[in-house]
Specification:
With 457 residues, this protein is α/β, with parallel strands linked by helices. The chain has 3 domains: 214 residues, 3-Layer(bba) Sandwich (FAD/NAD(P)-binding domain); 106 residues, 3-Layer(bba) Sandwich (FAD/NAD(P)-binding domain); 106 residues, 2-Layer Sandwich (Enolase-like, domain 1), CATH 3.30.390.30. It contains 14 helices and 22 strands. Helix 1 packs parallel to helix 9, helix 3 packs across helix 4 and helix 3 crosses helix 6. It is globular and about 70 Å long.
Length: 457
């Protein structure tokens, strides 16, 4: 068995892994990446990026359907699904190719194959053994999980397969109305599929603020999604041409059943036991606030550790881990301040506490909630559907959380994230001049509402 030494070895090349590797190289460490599938990991190849490429096609279809409101008459758009998926592939190859070039540019050596840790603290890849003088970073991401009593196979698929179908399905049943399920349902219903969306909890997007969920639910139903909350799916049977299932006391069927109800850490075969790496009570890799595991010199980031399963969270954890390994002292990641983005129609962007969570924690809560219509630009663009909601602490003017649902929400939320990270509060946002006419003026008005002096409302 051949042996090669590096300062830093990163297992996994998704948004957490490749960013960690590049930052490691920037800090002067000799660096290797081990990837068992494709460069870019699941996010770039089968998840985040493919999803947004298909969603973009759905957005354009919706814009064409709404064109008559702007004095433009066109016929009903014709969906060339093969072309939609061809473009999806082009987007993926462009971005994964870019990641490969960045790794090469920074002198990161890439090893193909499944990696496992050894008791000696090395990394085994096939017949090669790699050693790391300063850090091994585990960045293997997550895998799909079935719902109880169900297994994947045939017409029962996960989210990755849902974004890679060869033909536009006539009907689709989606289990789980969180971010992933909502995106799939919103994309395919606008492309022309009949879509049922099932959620066991009492509302769609159940981890979002309740006001956001209400707006999203109305929009989903208007788009034609058949939404079922407080409903569990069972008795799933996959056939050659479709799948049957039960929900409540009813029977259902669809071309495909997509399970989008949660994922698990991809740690099988990684050799954690051999390396003496502990798991937490959720079955995730146990880490401290900068990613150190129970084994000295081994770090873990992304979906295999605590915190939200988000690509940008993994990237920042990767940066922090390798900076610590290089002798720096970066600030630990503040998980509540990580923005969340859901690209259904309407978009959802949020961070921090919901109103309910803030009240449960005993804050003197100030709420600034305004409809999108307070900003003139939303009328100009025909995108008045949506709200901006700021959850603040009245005593200190602190932003505890913010929630935006509507067009551009996934971009608009960043202003409020930045305001908090720069130690500003909603009174400061209320005094910050915003360009006119822009969607961002809805942020301004929500801050003024929280501060007690809403102008346009």
């Amino acid at each position: 068995m051949s042996s090669t030494a590096f300062d830093c070895i990163v297992i996994g090349s998704g948004p957490g892994g490749y960013v960690a590797a590049i930052r490691s190289a920037q800090l002067g460490m000799t660096t290797a990446v081990v990837e068992k599938d494709e460069i870019g990991g699941r996010c770039l190849n089968v998840a985040c990026i493919p999803a947004k490429a298909v969603l973009r096609s759905a957005d354009i279809v919706q814009e064409i359907r709404d064109a008559q409101e702007f004095g433009i008459t066109v016929g009903e758009p014709q969906i060339d699904f093969a072309k939609v998926m061809e473009r999806r592939g082009e987007v993926v190859s462009t971005l994964t190719g870019g990641v490969g070039m960045l790794l090469k540019k920074h002198g990161v050596e890439v090893f193909e194959g499944a990696a496992s840790l050894t008791a000696q603290g090395t990394v085994r890849v096939g017949e090669q053994e790699l050693s790391a003088a300063k850090a091994i970073v585990l960045a293997t991401g997550s895998v799909k999980r079935p719902i109880p009593g169900t297994e994947f196979g045939g017409r029962v698929i996960g989210t990755e397969e849902a974004w890679a179908l060869d033909e536009l399905p006539a009907s689709l049943a989606v289990v789980g109305a969180g971010a992933s399920g909502a995106e799939i349902a919103s994309a395919y219903v606008r492309l022309g599929s009949q879509v049922q969306l099932f959620e066991g909890l009492d509302r769609v997007l159940p981890t979002e603020d309740a006001d956001v969920s209400k707006v999203a639910a109305r929009a989903f139903k208007k788009q034609g999604i058949d939404v079922h909350v407080k409903t569990f799916v069972g008795d799933v049977a996959s056939g050659d041409d479709g799948v049957t299932f039960s929900y409540g006391d009813q029977q259902g069927s669809a071309d495909w059943l997509v399970i989008a109800a949660g994922r698990g850490p991809d740690i099988e075969g990684l050799g954690l036991d051999a390396a003496g790496i502990e798991l937490d009570e959720q079955g995730l890799v146990k880490v401290d606030d900068v990613g150190r595991t129970s084994r000295a010199g081994v770090y873990a980031i992304g979906d295999i550790v605590r915190g939200p399963a988000l690509a940008h969270k993994a990237s920042e954890e990767g940066v922090i881990a390798v900076e610590v390994a290089a002798g720096h002292e970066p600030e630990p990641l503040a998980y509540p301040d990580i923005p969340r983005a859901t690209f259904c129609l309407p978009n959802v962007g949020s961070f921090g506490l919901t109103e309910e969570q803030a009240r449960e924690q005993g804050h003197d809560v100030a709420i600034g909630k305004v409809p999108y219509g307070v900003a003139g630009a939303t009328t100009v663009y025909g995108d008045r559907q949506g709200i901006v909601k700021i959850v603040g602490d009245r005593r200190y003017g602190e932003i505890l959380g913010a929630h935006v649902v509507g067009s551009k929400a996934t971009d608009m939320i960043q202003e409020l994230v930045n305001a908090k990270l720069l130690e500003g509060g909603y009174p400061e946002v209320a005094r910050a001049i915003h360009g006119h006419p822009t969607f961002s003026e809805a942020i301004l008005e929500a801050a003024r509402a929280a501060d007690g002096w809403l102008i346009h409302g």
